[in-house]
Design goal:
The chain has 11 helices and 13 strands. Strands 3, 4, 5, 6, 9, 10 and 11 form a 7-stranded mixed β-sheet that branches. Strands 1, 2, 12 and 13 form a 4-stranded antiparallel β-sheet that branches. The C terminus is likely disordered.
Length: 382
């Protein structure tokens, strides 16, 4: 005989410094840890269908994990609990495996009345010895590290899975939400619960299907009354598609420490850009209203100047006893007067100024009057 591996059936904890990237591309770092063992039996979870009264027949996609919490003022040791959540956390392979099991239970009438059980912390002494799990961890659990060129034992696999799961979940969250003062605690709590749940589901576990005796759907917020439920025998989930489950590893807990930006300079620039963008969004409506008001005032002033010029020119055209030359000179003098007024000149387009110059040349011949010189000096200054 030859010793293949030495397996420690006590609880093992491993930590690893790792980095990940958020959905908007910001690198963060933290410490990921996992608590796991080979010496304790698989954890048992309750599952049920998320049904709608009068709806279609349930399918694999309707399976939910039943999470219980203590009722307000209650005590979990005395069974005063409520359904806190129906979590959709099983992958497709586990959903189909549980669904086929539930259908077989229904056909064989394998549901029995649920008994009231006192919950409490289970301590296993001595630690459970399962030859299949120990053999799987000792043989299949060994991995070859290409960096160190050494074979590593079964305790490396849980951390590899934990890091991959951590990165996959984090890349679905924006960096700003991690540092949002109002929603930070709730988001981190949800992120931590999802990470812990997914890691536990990676290991060996059992499920028991429950349903109400009266056929009504189980809903969030209902009181957990075992005397009103029917339950199946425990069902071990298949191990083929789960690396940790195939090695016989039970994950007890997983988590991570506080997340910090990997590159503080990039973090500060990102926060500044985010702050500037937010301020721009706040100022944009006010700036738009201001520009709209300025354009409206400019249009009204131009219209008023045009009306005043038109009325003045109309009075000159209606003046009796003037020759054509005198009439033209009077018209030009009036237009030149308006063009030299600062409040009117600002409203005149450049084409109008050119038109006045051309009319002056046609009516009075070459040369520059003092008014025209003032007009051109004002045009150059503007």
């Amino acid at each position: 005989e030859r010793v293949r591996a030495v397996i420690d059936r006590r609880r093992q904890i491993r930590v690893r410094q790792t980095s990940a990237r958020t959905r908007d591309g910001i690198d963060v770092s933290g410490v990921v840890f996992a608590l796991f063992t080979l010496g304790e039996p698989a954890e048992t979870f309750f599952v049920t269908y998320d049904l709608v009264e009068g709806g279609d027949a349930p399918g694999p996609q309707d399976l939910r994990l039943v999470e219980l919490r203590d009722a307000p003022g209650g005590n979990g040791m005395m069974g005063r609990q409520v359904i806190g959540r129906l979590a959709d956390c099983f992958d497709e392979e586990d959903q189909w495996a549980i669904h086929r099991f539930v259908q077989a239970v229904h056909q064989g009438n394998g549901l029995q009345p649920m008994q009231v059980e006192r919950s409490g912390r289970e301590v296993w002494r001595p630690f459970l010895y399962d030859p299949r799990r120990v053999r799987a961890a000792g043989v299949l659990g060994r991995t070859f590290n290409r960096e160190t060129q050494l074979w590593e034992d079964w305790t490396r696999a849980p951390m590899d899975i934990a890091v991959d799961t951590f990165r996959r979940l984090l890349e679905q969250i924006d960096f700003d939400r991690l540092y949002d003062i109002q929603a930070r605690d709730a988001l981190l709590r949800e992120f931590s619960d999802s990470f812990r749940r997914e890691m536990i589901l990676q290991g060996v576990l059992r499920v028991r299907y429950v349903e109400r005796r009266d056929g009504m759907p189980i809903s969030v917020g209902d009181n957990w009354r075992p005397e009103e439920l029917r339950i199946s025998e425990p069902f071990d989930l298949p191990v083929q598609h789960k690396p940790l489950r195939g090695r016989g590893i039970r994950v007890l807990h997983a988590g991570f420490t506080q997340l910090q930006p990997t590159h503080p300079d990039v973090f500060r620039l990102y926060r500044y850009d985010f702050w500037r963008s937010a301020k721009r969004l706040e100022v944009l409506p006010q700036r738009t209203d201001f520009e709209r008001g300025a354009l409206r005032a400019l249009a009204e002033a131009r219209l008023q100047a045009q009306r005043e010029m038109a009325n003045s020119l109309l009075r000159i055209l209606n003046s009796p006893g003037l020759s054509r030359l005198a009439l033209g000179a009077r018209l030009f003098e009036a237009m030149e007067m308006y063009a030299n007024r600062p409040d009117v000149r600002q409203q005149l387009p450049r084409e109008t100024v050119n038109l006045i110059r051309e009319m002056r040349r046609m009516l009075l011949g070459p040369g520059k009057s003092r008014g025209e010189e003032r007009l051109e000096d004002g045009e150059e200054a503007s």
